[in-house]
């Protein structure tokens, strides 16, 4: 099965879905959005990578702001940076960036803060790799995330587990869109950094669940 352009979903949405299913629903089904200091920092940080620059130094080319997609998974998105490095690998032609030769591809994502205790950022990066693999026919085995708080890159490999998790979330996102239902709120440690707390109101949802439980228990 191949998805149409109209049915493709944003790669960034997988990052939201991995972070919190309700946050994903509020953004991508209800079209809710709110800025906090974390989202504002991220927007400022991405101004350069969204400008579409190209650099070539020491055998490595960098392309920013490239659009990628995977029609089998129904994903599309815009990469922060694609790095292509000269290698001994197979010859390839990539007309959409006017590139040919022996190159290894590496997606690079920029994030404010530091590495998280969940896979949301890595899933977004892996989804970009899956798009590149379908578009070029080349394996993309690793990528990088530059965390501003650390001021250095963190390197990642796209092993079978993270690929399976990413593909599973893509399928789940399409299923949620088909259902049209925003997932229920669940209070967890991610809530404190979420810009949608006022829209979500997870504590109210939990209070309602508790009242329904008492009603069922005691009549």
Would you kindly provide a brief summary of this structure?
With 219 residues, this protein is an alpha+beta fold. The chain is 38% helix and 26% strand. The protein contains 7 helices and 9 strands; from the N terminus they run E-H-H-H-E-E-E-E-E-E-H-E-E-H-H-H.
What can you tell me about this protein's structure?
It contains 7 helices and 9 strands; from the N terminus they run βαααββββββαββααα. With 219 residues, the chain is α+β, with helices and mostly antiparallel strands. It has one domain: Lambda Exonuclease, Chain A (Alpha-Beta Complex), CATH 3.90.320. Helix 1 packs across helix 5 (160-179).
Q: What fraction of residues sit in β-strands?
A: 25-35%
- Radius of gyration based on Cα positions: 20 Å
Mean pLDDT: 79
Note the total helix count.
7
- Side-by-side strand order of the widest sheet: 2-3-6-7-8-9
Please tell me the total number of domains: 1
Number of strands: 9
Question: Biggest sheet: strands, sense, closure?
Answer: 6 strands, mixed
In the CATH hierarchy, what is the class? Alpha Beta
- What class do helices, strands and sheet pairing give? alpha+beta
Quickly give the CATH architecture: Alpha-Beta Complex
Helix fraction, binned, reads 25-40%
Terminal-residue CA separation:
49 Å
Order of helices and strands: EHHHEEEEEEHEEHHH
Categorize the overall geometry. Answer: globular
Low-confidence regions? 33-46, 203-208
Assign the CATH topology. Lambda Exonuclease, Chain A
